[in-house]
Amino acid sequence: MTPDRARIDRLAGRQHFVVTRRQVLELGASATWLRHQVVTGRWRRLHPGVYVNHHAALDWMTRAFAALSYAGRDAALSHTAASMWWFEKPTARRLRPDEPIEVSVPFRRTVQPQPGLIIHRRRLMPAVWSGAVRATTAPETVLDLVARADRLDDVVGILTRATNTLRPEEIRAVATARSRLRHRDLVRDVLAEVAHGVESPLELRYRRGVEVAHGLPRSELQVRERLGEAWIRADCRYRAHRVRVELDGRLAHPGGRTDEDTWRDNAALLASGEITLRYRWSHVAGAPCRTAVQVAEALRAGGWGGALRRCSPHCTAR
């Protein structure tokens, strides 16, 4: 029987160029015809029984759809793949050639891993259809990534980035419902800090390691205001003492201080008489005691009458 090539191509077009062996056979193709497409280089076999009807470079959606087609019934993108789906713009969905697509399937099913594909089995499948793919829900995806993170800064980064899209209470509700969750206490604490304005691992380290540990007053976080013709935002502001602190994480400012940073600092100085202190990871994480001393000096110049507290027996703050 002659296959309906036009119908096959239309089907592949709706599925990001992916078709399964079963679909092709149902449209009139034979196993010999299908094998011929692969042998001649017209098509590419990605996984057993899953094909792409071209031989050009594969985009992320093609790889994701192929992974779900192979994994079968009730499968869902999860972990890094689900994170890409929920939290990255379509133009940013780029995976390194050696980075696999991760898929979860119900625990009762066994699906063999394939090159470029990692299979997770889970007893609960909190997944939804979203557009062309099925994926674990956004809050569940966040906690999946948290559960396998080893570094505390990575946990903080995952949570603070996720709260650009999700409300903290959405993640908190799912965390509460999980009977087992690695880093549970940290998740609770970070979400509470996020509710007060913390937006990055560096900001959380400053809050805890510099301010709280050394008895400094608590700053206002992410203060947005209009100065002149422009809107500016301060990471941390001690309004009563006319001090601002800007925390420049490497991801936010890969080249260090920018021209816009300088204009902002100067505008704040001219409009309100506030000085701006600027710190990076090496200051906050590597020398929190020395950073606390400098912030305290600035606060005292603005009228703060408090005393620094030593954070440990080896603290150098005086």
Chain-wise SSE layout:
Layout: H1 5-14, E1 18-20, H2 21-26, H3 31-39, E2 44-47, E3 50-52, H4 60-71, E4 76-77, H5 79-87, E5 101-106, E6 117-122, E7 127-130, E8 133-136, H6 138-147, H7 152-162, H8 168-177, H9 184-195, H10 201-212, E9 220-227, E10 230-238, E11 243-247, H11 259-272, E12 275-279, H12 281-284, H13 288-301
Pfam family, one: AbiEi_4
InterPro entries: AbiEi_N
Protein name: Type IV toxin-antitoxin system AbiEi family antitoxin domain-containing protein
Short description:
The protein has about 325 residues and is of the alpha+beta class.
Measured by DSSP, the beta-strand proportion falls in 15-25%
Indicate the CATH architecture of the largest domain.
3-Layer(aba) Sandwich
Mean pLDDT: 88
Query: pLDDT under 50 segments (min length 5)?
Result: none
Q: Give the C-alpha Rg.
A: 26 Å
Sketch the topology as an H/E string, one letter per element: HEHHEEHEHEEEEHHHHHEEEHEHH
Q: What is the structural class?
A: alpha+beta
CATH class annotation of the largest domain: Alpha Beta
Number of structural domains:
4
Strand element count: 12
Might you state the CATH topology name of the largest domain? Endonuclease, Chain A
Strand order of the largest sheet: 9-10-11-12
What coarse outline follows from CA principal-axis ratios?
elongated
Q: Report helical residue fraction.
A: 40-55%
Organism: Georgenia faecalis
Protein name: Type IV toxin-antitoxin system AbiEi family antitoxin domain-containing protein
Domain AbiEi antitoxin N-terminal: 7-53
InterPro entries: AbiEi_N
